[in-house]
């Protein structure tokens, strides 16, 4: 039976490499579409959790995962031999930056090294991990073809960028349009065949390079516009203007304006990282991606802006940062999730500690925090008058901000969570 027939009849066995924020939701959706799926991850604790039906990602229901495991559609392993029995292998491993802020594709290369000795004819390989334009064709393809197989004839190679938005209740894996690009036309046909069985809408593009660029454009657009509005916030503070009032008024224009909002910096695995993949690639072509680099400078500098703003607020009360008692509200990188990857709140906390502040935090989604070799526990939102300042870094919707401002002596709000609440508080409210 051909691979295409196996896919159409849901008889293709699929392996997902990497069971993180991308891999686990994808594994579940593929299994729900009626395919048998094996999750492969070198993190044995993740494997055990999947085997037991315990979801460690908020967007995946443990009840749903348990049912898929019990019905035989989902298995998990820490051993790569499952690849040899698979018709489709989907790579969903991390792609961080190294210490020099250049792309680190080591996890993809390691996945390829697991795949190569276990390749067989008519295998479909899909890379979902974000990388620079040209990686699939220039780096991954030659490694795979060294096995003696030819792409488009003996095996199929495609790139399909993940577009996960953790915590988004409206758009999740299945109903987010799926961009797909193949090394050859046959490769594109095969990846379209698979994902048409799983996703609601496909967006085919002409090449893997184009598909890689799509993902980087999406997140560069976000990063650059957030960098712009973060600088607007700095300018408004110097002009003694309310940033949020200005943005809200501008947003009433029915054309030509899309509102973005400032914050303490960029967080998450994608938006702070992905544009730098593109910037790095362009430097190899002797081109400077100036918008990207400038936005990165502004966004990575926002934690220092927050600390400086807090320092000014404390000075108004004749207090220094040193020895001040500071409560940080929210350390996840965005509202209503438990993900702290690249969270600017961590930088703010470290900067405050370096200045001698006594920092505590409250986050209902992150009960325990390991930071700089120390472990911290979320404290309750009580006795707020014991703190010299409360700093809102993540505006979780479950928090009663009216009560926060009523019980605090000073609030620095970086998310506009306290909008319209000054009347309820004797505290001075400062905003970014």
**Strand ordering within the main sheet:** 3-2-1-4-5-6-7-8
CATH architecture grouping of the largest domain: 3-Layer(aba) Sandwich
**N-to-C series of helices and strands:** HEHEHHEEHEHEEHEHHHHHEHEEEEHEE
Counted up, domains total 2
What is the CATH top level name of the largest domain? Alpha Beta
- Helix/strand-derived category reads alpha/beta
Number of helices: 14
CA-based shape: elongated
Cα-atom radius of gyration? 24 Å
Strand element count: 15
Q: Outline the low-pLDDT stretches.
A: none
Give the terminus-to-terminus CA distance. Answer: 62 Å
In short:
This protein has 432 residues and is an alpha/beta fold. The chain has helices at 3-8, 23-32, 44-52, 62-70, 106-115, 135-145, 185-196, 208-238, 243-250, 274-284, 290-300, 302-316, 344-354, 401-407, and strands spanning 13-17, 36-40, 74-77, 88-91, 123-127, 155-159, 178-182, 202-204, 325-329, 358-362, 368-371, 374-377, 389-392, 410-413, 428-431. The strands form three sheets. Strands 3-2-1-4-5-6-7-8 form an eight-stranded mixed sheet, sandwiched between helices. The protein has a five-stranded parallel sheet with strand order 10-9-13-14-15, with helices on one face.
Description:
With 432 residues, the chain is an alpha/beta fold. The chain has 2 domains: 3-206, NAD(P)-binding Rossmann-like Domain (Rossmann fold), CATH 3.40.50; 244-431, Rossmann fold (3-Layer(aba) Sandwich), CATH 3.40.50. It is built from 14 helices and 15 strands. An 8-stranded mixed β-sheet has the order 3-2-1-4-5-6-7-8, with helices on both faces. Helix 8 (208-238) packs across helix 10 and helix 8 crosses helix 11 (290-300). 44% of the residues are buried.
